[in-house]
Amino acid sequence: MREILFTKITGAGNDFVLIDKNLNFELSLTPELIKSICDRRYGVGADGVLTISDCKNYDFEMDYFNSDGSNGMLCGNGARSIIKYADFSGRLKSSKTKFIFQKESFSGEVIDKNEIKFNLNSPTKLKLNYEIEILNNKLNVSFIDTGAYHVVINIDEKGNDIGTIDSFPVEQYGREIRYSKYYQPLGTNVNFISIRNEEINIRTFERGVEAETLACGTGSVASAMISYLNGKVVLPVRLVTKSKEVLTVDFKYQNEKFSNISLTGPAKIVFEGKYKI
Whole-model pTM above 0.85? Predict the structure, then answer.
């Protein structure tokens, strides 16, 4: 029987099993193994699996897998969490870091022992304020790709006001939108937001987890961008997640282009362990 050495880590409640390839030689992560690790009853339990490995000319290389075993798109809280681990494991030469994810270069920074900043690349596929029909309700939504596909729905708007941010049926509507005809074949993540005093309360149904998570990094960035374009918030944007931990999104917007995009918030190493396979 083989053992996998892992670290349980969380970014604002978005939790991951992190596997350091330097400690787990020649490990093959199959979809079935990923699903069993992430199972909250029979495994370690997590929203996804992160892997970290050495990379020439960079501090490290990151990979990410959803808890359903599929290969994930960009994960903002996963990136912040892996930066935390890279610092913990001695890979960083300073507080700032550069790394590779899916052949693309990213950067970040260790702000202090609790706060980690992740710098995102420019978003694509922006579509503002259009109507979709879900469960016999016409909803005003927006869509943006912040490295992962995201629908953003402001539940304060007329027609979207099916419940408060605490009572809104996120699982029901999130699943319907995620699998709806509007976003086939790949589907989408779905963010439900409510804005008070220019602070965003956010809940997210995540594709690949197929459930609501306690926080979503790229979803928070998407929601901040959409809310800013709609004139609802000023920079930097504070977002209160389902876990009640706060994420901060900042960026510049000039000539209809986003730049200097960052996601900052808490990341914590919870425990280390061994998983037998």
Answer: yes
